[in-house]
Task: structure prediction
Amino acid sequence: MPELEEAIDRVIAGPERKSRMISDREKKIIAYHESGHALIAKLLPESDPVHKVSIIPRGPALGYTLQMPLEDKYLVTKTEVLAKISALLGGRLAEILVFNEQTTGSQNDLTKATEIATRMVCEYGMSPKLGSMTLRKPEEETFLGRDIVTRARQYSENTAQIIDEEIKKIISESEDRVRKLLEQNLDKLKRLAEKLIEREILDGEEVEKLIRGEELPNINGTETTETAQAN
Result:
């Protein structure tokens, strides 16, 4: 099983970068960032289950949170899409909450969250203002050599402004939701981050135990009787 897990991690996140030297401060920031992702995913029942959280650098990533559905899914609800955006924003907002600072580590999360919100508005008909409209053609319809901007813009400037406003609204409302959840569960966030700094990898079951306030077995396998205390 460890070899299978390593193979999955390698395919999803890339090879392990053992040569990367990360300072204690950066390691702490990464731990809170990934804990933010994991905590929001666990607090939102419509999110895919957290399978693993790691702060071991792989590929271009300094850490990652892996969510995996329990079964094959062919349809995704609006609630589930919004939960995905919230989980993506959890890392950035955890950094801001704990360190009162922003880092460049959220760039990929913001790109993904913005793309999902854009698809909600322009492709999935999930904007109350614009209704059941598709405002950009599928990528496969792009003709070689044709400007993608020209292809995509088949609506007025007024509609373009509404699209921008709707995308911004989705992101803003998701940020407000995530910020409140993190503030209300700050003790759980700290517990996850501290244990992640200690172990570097947590599986889904360990994340669940820590959120419930339970202590994990020592790394050598012996059980502890103490219950994790909120800081």
Summary: The chain has eight helices and three strands. The chain has one domain: 2-212. The chain has a mean pLDDT of 85. Strands lie at 50-54, 64-67, 201-203.
